Amino acid sequence: MKKAVVLLSGGLDSTTCMAIAKDEGYEIYPISFEYGQRHNRELECAKKVAKKFNVRAHKIIRLESLGGSALTDMNIDVPKYKGDNEIPITYVPARNILFLSYALGYAEVLGAEAIFIGVSAVDYSGYPDCRPEFIGAFQKVVDEGTAAGVKGKSIEIKSPLIHLTKGETIELGIGLRAPYELTTSCYNGEEKACGECDSCVLRLKGFEEAGIKDSIEYKKIL
Amino acid sequence: MKKAVVLLSGGLDSTTCMAIAKDEGYEIYPISFEYGQRHNRELECAKKVAKKFNVRAHKIIRLESLGGSALTDMNIDVPKYKGDNEIPITYVPARNILFLSYALGYAEVLGAEAIFIGVSAVDYSGYPDCRPEFIGAFQKVVDEGTAAGVKGKSIEIKSPLIHLTKGETIELGIGLRAPYELTTSCYNGEEKACGECDSCVLRLKGFEEAGIKDSIEYKKIL
């Protein structure tokens, strides 16, 4: 059976990727990271999602934080949604590069054919490492920088959500029965989602766009 | 003062990079990794080298090993030098990609302008992640995938040894007074270098080529 490593954060997008990879016939190997996030809620959700998919192994990697972001530095507040196109303070330096590098090492060890990453350039245009230009550049690193790549059996970086809006992602995921009730998206990580951070606002807009009710609880809906 | 992150393994090449970066006027920030190596000798050497250069900080990152290499898996023996062009079993999946990714995150947090990596495509042609094609591809990832890159102030990946033979590297390093007496290159990591593994053989050939005596001790010289 062909194998795929799936970057699993415990959020909506990565959970959708789990469902897509399964639907495409891959044996799925999720990988999650503890990188000094503000909270462990994401990781708890990732574990529940992995379990729901009955995976053979769920790799959890502890990364030392380098600081420099509101998501990893408790001295920087998570801002409320502004909706501009600036790179937000929640940007974590080189995060997706690091995640993909780990997933790549793991994929080589497993002999996997693909890596799934749930980035989208549509709703998150503020993050440079969520754009197709970045994914294309990383694919080239895989082709040139790994044993698999230079032997002509490169590992494919798949980003099936990259051109989808949040609403389209949700429609796709619901069709594949992605367990969204187990996910979290809130940057603040309290028991109920805040409903006010960038991530909550985008999630809620997505469900609205898809015409579906979000099954998780919110403290406040704007 | 402009800053550079230098990947420092404690070996000859990375120590040469420290000397080059200093000579080019950078304030140097070495970064080293514990990644489940067979021995800690490298890291001890890296610490001594960093100290010798009087650096402001020496970042040491513990990486969880993914296995799959003779250098990280104690169940795989380190082979003797064969001199062929196959990818050796000492290849660590995605190692340089992972190292560069961490260095990149660190460089962004520091506001550094460059990252030095001491790879050479001449003597180590067996490793895909030591070739100019790989470094070029990674540069593109930096340009497209980081805040610094998309703002047009990208971080430069510098690999000043990439076209040098080991002998040329040593000549260059000696000219810049690189403290080679503090370095190690042996894969086996005993007190004296084995003199028989790929890495020892290449080092010894390099010193011979440069017409200089290596100041570290060997158990055996072939």
User: What sort of overall outline of chain A do the alpha carbons produce when their principal axes are compared?
Assistant: globular
The name of the CATH superfamily of chain A reads: HUPs
- Bin the strand percentage of chain A: 5-15%
**Approximately how much helix is present in the residues of chain A?**
25-40%
CATH topology grouping of chain A: Rossmann fold
Which residues of chain A form runs of ≥5 with pLDDT under 50?
none
Oligomer: homodimer
The first-level CATH class name of chain A = Alpha Beta
The Rg value of chain A, from CA coordinates, equals 17 Å
Main β-sheet description of chain A: 5 strands, parallel
- In CATH terms, what is the architecture of chain A? 3-Layer(aba) Sandwich
Report mean pLDDT of chain A, rounded to a whole number. Answer: 87
- Output the strand order for the largest sheet of chain A: 3-2-1-4-5
Report on the structure:
Chain A is built from seven helices and five strands; from the N terminus they run E-H-E-H-E-H-E-H-H-E-H-H. In chain A, strands 3-2-1-4-5 form a five-stranded parallel sheet, sandwiched between helices. Chain A has one domain: HUPs (Rossmann fold). The mean pLDDT of chain A is about 85. The termini of chain A are far apart. Helices cover about 35% and strands about 10% of the residues of chain A. Chain A is of the alpha/beta class. The interface between A and B is large, with 40 and 41 residues.
Topology:
Two copies of one chain form a homodimer.
Chain A: E1 3-7, H1 12-23, E2 27-34, H2 41-52, E3 59-62, H3 95-110, E4 114-116, H4 132-145, H5 147-150, E5 156-158, H6 166-175, H7 198-210
Parallel strand pairs in A: 1-2, 1-4, 2-3, 4-5
